[in-house]
Amino acid sequence: MKLEIILSCMHQHNMDIVMQSNIKGDVLIINQCDENKTEEQTFATTDGQSFCARMISTTTRGLSRSRNMAIENARGDILQISDDDEWFEDDYQEKILRAYEQYPQADVILFKIGTTMKNFPDKPYRMGCITFLRSSSWQISFRRERILEKGIRFDEMMGSGTGNGGGEETMFLRSCLDHGLWIHYVPDLIASLNESSTSQWFDGFNEKFFFDRGWATRRFLGWPMAMVYAVEYAVAKRKFLDISIPSAIWNTFKGIFSPKEKPTK
Description:
Order of helices and strands: EHEEEHEEHEEEHHEHHH
Strand content: 15-25%
Number of helices: 8
Shape: globular
Number of strands: 10
Helix content: 25-40%
Radius of gyration: 18 Å
Structural class: alpha/beta
Distance between the termini: 41 Å
């Protein structure tokens, strides 16, 4: 099996991000900028191992579009999603490939990322229709051939750059489950996040956040479950809210019942 990192970023002028992210194996960079071109460069690790870094610079916009472009142009058998604010562990390749050897039935494997944003168990388990809701995109790896075979892509109406908030990774995992793919979680630390970096779409737990969340959760849960989840989520996040709990729930409901295809902003 061949592993390849697929890294989404913006306005990069060179491939310095490869070393800045401590990437030590093949990587495909999708660089959203103001020109269209493709570059390829060979890097060498400290122990003399060479690997290939490719960069596709594109004038298209949107994180989901970036990741779909990476899926379509990648060469690896196993793809690991990455953003531009990660630092990979020295042994990330061994951990990822070992997990796929250990769980050959797994089509998608999520790993542990060094951040306080998500809390996951310290034991491996198969993820189902509820546990996938707590996932983040940078945890996700998958067998490229299985994703292509099932025609699964990131929803380009969702994610950074659309004006519709996040949730594209959750929709992706829901699509995997709907197509019968096996999703597994393995508590091996493969990377850490720079938590001081700023989000391109999150501006606090305000009215717009909850409206967008309602619209997104209806897409991957359906409106009955989305309504239940709206109440649970608002209560769970009560310490962080910029608005009252009733306002959070009301704005989520407004998002749930907004037009089926919400236009981007």
